[in-house]
Amino acid sequence: MHYEGTVIRPPSEADSILLQVTLGCSHNKCTFCGTYRGKRFNIKKDDMIFEDIEFARNYCRRQNRLFLCDGDALVIPMRRLVPILERIRDRLPWVERVGVYANTKSIKMKTDEDLARLHKLGIKIAYMGLESGDNKVLEAIRKGADADKMIAMGKKLKKAGIKVSVTVLLGLGGRKGALDHARETGRVLTAMDPDFVGALSLMLIPGTELYDQYEKGAFELPGPEEMLAELGAMIAATNLTDGLFHANHASNYLPIRAHLPQDKEKTLELISRALDGKIPLKPEYMRAL
Predict the structure, then answer these.
(1) I need a surface site. Which of 37, 145, 233, 288 has the fewest CB within 10 A?
(2) Where would I find the beta strands (DSSP E) of the chain?
(3) Three-state DSSP class for 50?
(4) Which residues are 163's β-sheet partners?
(5) Mean pLDDT, the chain, as a whole number?
(6) Residue 267 binned pLDDT confidence (cut-offs 50, 70, 90)
(7) pLDDT tens digit sequence for 24-75
(8) Would you tell me the crossing angle of helices 178-192 and 224-236 to the nearest 10 degrees?
(9) What domains are defined for the chain?
């Protein structure tokens, strides 16, 4: 495989074929993210992508899922994305699902008909970084979209039959804005009604704008108990039709995996017990991105 730089994929794609079709992120302005700093976004050449598909044909026959890397492969124009998916279907017929990162810009660029066609060609799940449902937070982190746009684009994916997995970041509202961040995020998740929600705990990365704000005292990072209380407020405000809400990423202080709505009350009880000191939290040295 022709991998360039650090290749990032969702935790749930750990056992997938990782096909790098783009480099970097088409947005690359979020103040908390250092993943693609120094990477200029571009789409890799077709001959290199097709060569990697042939590699997968020979060496990746045990993997029935494939993930298109890097940060926002859905932004690839249809005239190039369709042939890539057709080649995957033809050369890797055992692949049952193709996943992709998507942001509001790339989703908006695709018509309803485009997305339906991409779903038919194999894209079964898209991962969106909501981060927060609070418009003040979204503006502060330079996400490039407000809550209403996030909701609309999430619904657009679901309309095409593509499952939606949404990531949110605990702690992103700072100490003063924690509850607003939690409650507004729950409101937006309810409106989007994604199939999966992944809650990560904010870890400040040196070299990012948010880290610089923290160093200058302009941003206060909530502590472990505050982030856990924020998670409880977020889950309390979230009403999904039938979704999996998990906070079992390595960055989290308390692993949680809950089917909503049926597991909501027992999950809130679990968080309450942890806040009362009855369940130990993950020590800082064990947390990682």
Answers:
(1) 288
(2) 17-20, 22-23, 42-43, 65-69, 97-101, 123-131, 163-170, 196-201, 243-246, 257-260
(3) helix
(4) 125
(5) 94
(6) very high
(7) 888 999 999 988 877 789 999 999 999 999 999 999 999 999 999 988 899 9
(8) 40
(9) 11-277 (3.20.20.70)
With tokens 């055992």, the residue in question is 94
The pLDDT score that the predictor gives to residue 59 is 97
Say which residue the tokens 């505050």 belong to.
226
Torsion of the alpha carbons at 257, 9, 233 and 173, rounded to the nearest 10? 160
Question: Please, what is the angle between helix 147-159 and helix 112-120, to 10°?
Answer: 50
CB atoms under 10 Å from CB of 256, counted, come to 20
How many residues in total does the chain contain?
A: 289
Q: Which residue reads 């979704």 in tokens?
A: 243
Q: For residue 18, what are the β-bridge partners?
A: 67
Cβ partners under 8 Å of residue 227, min gap 6? 170, 171, 201, 202, 253
Residue 5 DSSP SS3: coil
Can you tell me the distance from the alpha carbon of 92 to that of 236, in angstroms, rounded to the nearest whole number?
A: 43
Residue recorded with tokens 């003063």: 176
